[in-house]
Give the backbone structure.
Amino acid sequence: SRWRERERVCVCHPRLRRLFMRLRHARRLHLATAFPEWRPLDFFHHEILHASRKEGSRARVGRLHTPHGTVETPGFVVVGTNGAVKFVDHHAADAAGMELMFSNTLHLEVHPGPAAVEAAGGLHKFIGRESRPLITDSGGFQIFSFAHRGQRAMPGAEEAKEDGEDGGASLKSSRPFPARHKYEVAAASSSRDGPPPPPRVRVSEDGASFRSYRDGRMLHLSPESTVRSQKALGADIIIPLDDLPGAATAAAPLEESVARTHRWEARSLREHLGDVRQQAMYGVIHGGTDERLRSLSVATLARWPFDGFCVGGSLGRDRSELAALLRYVMPLLPRERPNHLLGIGDVESIQVGVRLGVDTFDSCWPTRLGRHGTALTRHGSLKVGQVSYRDDYGPLDASCDGFVSRHHSRAYLHHLWRAKEPAVHGLLTLHNIKFMADLMADMRAKIWRDEL
């Protein structure tokens, strides 16, 4: 009651309100957190093999050891939202160089449900990937997408508007408007008549509630429930629930969001530590492009026994803001623990991130490009549907030794695209996975030579 009275006094005074929010955040964290000191896990650790000696570089080569295999770092993590890479069998993706695959807890919660996956022996056995590692997220980004009908929270929105999904350079984007059915359902009420209903995604201290895009039933995610779901899935790396504000969020709501995220992460971590199950948990650094909030987030989470850290939240409006953010944040992170940049996977941003010390990246960008007819090559993007490739009988990428470039010509892939053969989506996706694996291997080699 004393704290409620103080809040009533402060509500009309913005500066006093911000101070009050900080004090309340500190009090809640003090009451909620009494964690043991972080120690390396027997079953999970990041081995640093070499740190670049090039002036100004923080790049490093490492090896992430997990219960289901190792991951070379810096590395790219392929997104398999529902436990599958769209149009590509993950055994073929593994052969192309996919080491760590990223699946989404919220979508797996909607179907088939964590209980069904656990009954099958966990996600590794359920999808038949028992000798390679997996990572699952909590659903925080999807909650944002549901609440804002697929808006972007990351850089690339302007470029995507210009280029479109088939060749755009967006860094982390949502589905195009015609495919937003799941976002609309998740945010809507059950009524289908009359004007559009008000959004029904509700975020509170307890968590977030929204409608299932599959059958319309109300679902609720809390920090504890998302961790329990990820325990049932059994991925090697799990992520706590976070609150993701948009890129244009004002200072006061952004600060409140960061405070809520810290409280949610504390609750998630406590749930995780009660039943570790040979899983590592990464904390998520938030704060938008506000350096003070980012510094606060690192200082708060680095004291807790997270096994690694993700840089998440809104990462700026374009690549220059992303680069500036990483230049500030990366030196603050504990070097002895691995880090991951959430939702960023375009070549230019990866090159910047690797120089600044990012260990792993994830994005659906390369595979989405493949599904929409664009192949990534060492000489730039190639849209196979263009008429100039109709009589081009050369390999897709002469400098690539992957399955697609060894077996198929540009003319054949052009034919498949024009004939609307579904096989082309898988072939181009597989090629782009190989391209990303080769890109990361080339950068690791440059770091070893102190060239990056």
Observations:
- The longest helix spans residues 423-448.
